[in-house]
Amino acid sequence: MSEQLHDVRLHVNGSVHEVQVPARRLLSDALRHDCGLTGTHVGCEHGVCGACTVLVDGSPVRSCLMFAVSAVDAEITTVEGLTEADDTPEGRLSPVQQAFSDCHGLQCGFCTPGFLTTITAGLKENPDPTEDEAREMIAGNLCRCTGYQNIVKSVLRAAEIEQERS
Amino acid sequence: MTTKLFGTKVPRVEDQRFLRGQGRYVDDLLTDDPRLLHAAVLRSPHAHARITDIDVADVLDVEGVLAVWTYDDLVDAMAQPLPLLIPHPTLTHGRTQYALAKDEVNYMGEAIAFVVAVDRYVAEDAVARIRVSYDQLPPVVGIAAARAADRLVHDDVPGNVGARMEQENGDARAAIADAPHTLRLELDVERSACTPMEGRGTVARWDPDTSRLTVWSSTQTSTGVRGCVAAKLGLDLAKVDVITPDVGGGFGVKINHPWPEELLVPLAAMTLGRPVKFTEDRREHFISSAHERAQVHHVEVGFDDDGRVLGLNVEFWHDHGAYTPYGLIVPIITSTQLLGPYKPANYRVVFESLYTNTVIVTPYRGAGRPQGCFVMERTMDAIAAYLGKDRTEVRSTNFIQPDEFPYEHGLVFQDGRPLTYDSGDYPASLEKLKTLVGWDEFEDFRAEMAAQGRRVGIGLACYVEGTGVGPYEGAHVHIETSGKVKVATGLTTQGQGHQTAFAQIVADTLGVRFEDVEITTGDTRKMPYAVGTFASRAAVMSGSAIHLASLRAREKALRIAAEALEAAEDDLEIVDGVVSVRGTDASIDLGTVAVLSNPLRYAFDEASKAATQFSVGDPGKPPVAEDDEPGLEGKDFYSPERSTFANGMHAVIVETDPDTAEITILKYAVVHDCGHLINPMIVEGQIQGGVAQGVGGALYERMEYDEAGQLLNASFMDFLMPYVTEVPTTIDIDHLETPSPLNPLGIKGAGEAGVIPSAAVFAAAIEDAERPYKPTLAITAMPISPSELFDLRLAHADVPAEAIAEETR
């Protein structure tokens, strides 16, 4: 028996990806293996670690808990889509990305894409968080390397950079 | 050195690719190759069983399945057990598993069958259709069951004892018998695991055009994997390349090798003629990758009125799981590093390393030191309590003094070398810690809190960590004609920022711009001689090798430049990649020196014209001198006589809820001495991460096995790895720098430090918080949960309320 495939049009980072996937294909796998966007990482496949977090219509979503076929018509943003256009081919780091670099908010980098997307959405909602609010913002994501100290600093620094740039 | 980057907080170069989603981890590789196949593994659902039949008939019909292998499909070296990596004379009953189980399974999670299919979903469908018949055998779960030995893990291992090892300096039992005071303690630590965010993974591709096998693996040792793959697959070493791409954390578990999949994936790639990938999922990581930590300890200590330890006798039992691929490294480290910064006059240690029907045990960050530190520091606290002395005073009495280095313990360390500490200043570290945490002011704080009905306690713990174990690491430095510097070292990287820290060393030593240096790690094509990244050794070993190799390249650059500039070598300096004669305008770029170093027959650009044989050289001499070679390169190896010993001390203030026994961290302080710091930002990041991992180990994380050997919490839902909400809001860190005399940069390892004293320091602080109310309560087992603390309270009598009021007045 062969698995039925569905034609799915995914809108990711402003581009359209036409993919053929079975109904059970996770969005995380579709992004990584069908769209070639390997910046989204899979850490637990049961929605606990947050490494696979992407933005679906601007809201953080665990892409391992969503099927690719359910993401039709949604605007998806992955870590690759966070950089801001400038006159360089690679683009400028977003405030959140820059803050992580400034504050040593990452070590192995595996959980980082999920934090970056989560904080990007978090700062849209609350552009000037207190330290406690910064902690709350990242309280659903796991990191095994940093001990979170510098990730909290990165959230606060990102808010500053956002201010400086606007 | 004019541009001094060593010791500064240089931002990490690797961050750019990680932040842009352009890291390349093993599961990211070959994703656009339509020929790529995916593997899945059938794992034992039972802890101990005999396999009576495996029926794969239903699998072959599944569309998209290309191979199903069981033990019977393996031949030659692949049909032999996996290697026992670190043999030891006392490991008399070492056992390792087969790549796929042969006749018997000894832990839940052991690999039984290997399926290759067009994608992972299909491969998992196929795994679900394999039918295995088992005869269940009684499982041995936990140290008590292993010691009881009424059931055996392996029929041919009597008593479940893999090894028994004893070391003694002096006569500990006699000293204890003669001592004015003695104490006995029973101390337990439970199982836990590294749980990096990325599990294991391997990709392999066989290239029939060049007859070469390329293996990418998420490992802590590329060269180790390469050696195993070549040996097991019957290939010449020269046919196998192993590349470690970006790795999503290791913490020790990825130093063990070869995992079954590290051999089966390359074998499948060769057999099927298509690239194959295996990516471990989270549940697989819990049940088939390694654990650590579980030990039971019995301590006898004899001491004098000052608390000076006259004799220390430690017996402990180490749970090494179902097999012993990594030898006895963990219990050997416990048995030696238990001593910490102290010098007991007589010390005896004996351990048994025991088989259980649970996941194998290999080093996890700290590697036996957290247990050793827990044992020693609990003992120090018990002595202080017995004598009614301040806990810092008892420790001071037992410290090795700064003028006693090098200090010889009279024991053999994990590298087979004498346990000899190279440097440190423990009294100075303790003073710093007391200031940092406010040790002397704590009783006022306790009284203030008690007046509000709050319970607080303070604890401290000291450790010494042997880092930078041998045998060696090497480096190759190549200055290209562009002036760019390409550096390769063979050990791997799992997030430690090696591309930055090592480039800092090169920039300083060679005199080039940091931006011009590119570091490659863990690629056997570029550096085939290497050991691996473990035991806090990367900075010490590869850092030193890179420094030495850079010196060699510099030496050659100066020799060629001196000739070109007609100046004496001593008058030259190299700054930002330009060699110049001090005090003059005469200069030459390192890139041009590289051109001159390689006499050419063919010009391919303007720069190379200058190096053709009609342009340079003395016609009376060979173009390359007899004792020289072409190219501007330097290669060297660093192989120290013995390990270098870093040290540190942690203190924590906790609050325990009088009703719920919830444990809250109020303050965490660290004093750390790893010699000279290459990049303080990276070192502090390592400490912060280690402390968080230690908090997990002390208060939350444990492997919950039931009596049948089922791991009940094999997910991040149930294994309580800390989120930001569980770690201290701040960690106060202070450094002491006592340089190591054993390496040219004076550095010591820093990677494991943060996690070592956690169990000890939390046990001490929680006990200290409880003692005013429950004077007999002792924390002797870690980790500890609020409910366990609650139960402990119930088991001990209260101090009468009037007495507490008196005390706090």
Topology record:
The complex is a heterodimer of chains A (166) and B (809).
Chain A lengths: L4 E8 L2 E8 L4 H8 L18 E4 L2 E4 L12 E3 L17 H9 L8 H14 L5 H7 L11 H17 L1
Parallel strand pairs in A: 1-5
Antiparallel strand pairs in A: 1-2, 3-4, 3-5
Helix pairs in contact in A: 2-5
Chain B lengths: L14 H5 L17 E7 L5 E7 L9 E5 L34 E2 L5 E7 L2 H10 L1 E6 L6 H6 L12 E9 L2 H7 L2 E9 L11 E7 L4 E6 L4 H12 L6 E4 L16 H13 L3 E4 L2 H7 L6 E9 L5 E11 L9 H9 L9 E8 L14 H19 L3 H8 L8 E6 L5 E4 L4 H12 L4 H10 L3 E13 L5 E7 L5 E5 L8 H14 L5 E5 L16 H28 L6 E4 L2 E4 L5 E3 H7 L9 H4 L23 E6 L5 E13 L6 E11 L6 H21 L31 E4 L22 H13 L10 E2 L3 H10 L5 H8 L1
Parallel strand pairs in B: 1-12, 8-29, 10-11, 14-15, 20-21, 27-28
Antiparallel strand pairs in B: 1-5, 2-4, 2-6, 3-5, 7-15, 8-13, 9-10, 9-12, 13-14, 16-17, 18-26, 19-20, 19-25, 22-23, 23-24, 26-27
In short:
Chain A is built from 5 helices and 5 strands, in the order ββαβββαααα. By secondary structure, chain A is of the alpha+beta class.
Protein architecture, described:
Chain A: GO terms for molecular function: 2 iron, 2 sulfur cluster binding; metal ion binding; oxidoreductase activity. Chain A: This is (2Fe-2S)-binding protein. Chain A: Residues 6-82 form the 2Fe-2S ferredoxin-type domain. Chain A: Pathway: Alkaloid degradation; nicotine degradation. Chain A: Keywords: 2Fe-2S, Iron, Iron-sulfur, Metal-binding, Oxidoreductase. By secondary structure, chain A is of the alpha+beta class. Chain A contains five helices and five strands. Chain A has helices at residues 27-34, 95-103, 112-125, 131-137, 149-165, and strands at residues 5-12, 15-22, 53-56, 59-62, 75-77. In chain A, strands 2-1-5-3-4 form a five-stranded mixed beta sheet, with helices on both faces. In chain A, β1 (5-12) and β2 (15-22) form a beta hairpin. Chain B is an alpha+beta fold. Chain B has three domains: 138-398, 2-Layer Sandwich (Aldehyde Oxidoreductase, domain 4), CATH 3.30.365.10; 403-408 and 423-468 and 642-696 and 732-809, Aldehyde Oxidoreductase, domain 4; 473-597 and 632-638, 2-Layer Sandwich (Aldehyde Oxidoreductase, domain 4). Chain B contains 20 helices and 29 strands. In chain B, a hairpin with a 4-residue loop joins β9 (201-207) and β10 (212-217). Chain B is globular and about 100 Å long. Chain B starts with 14 loop residues before the first helix and ends with a helix. In chain B, 57% of the residues are buried. The model of chain B has no long low-confidence stretch (mean pLDDT 95). At the A-B interface, α1, α2, α3 and α5 of A face α1, α2 and α17 of B.
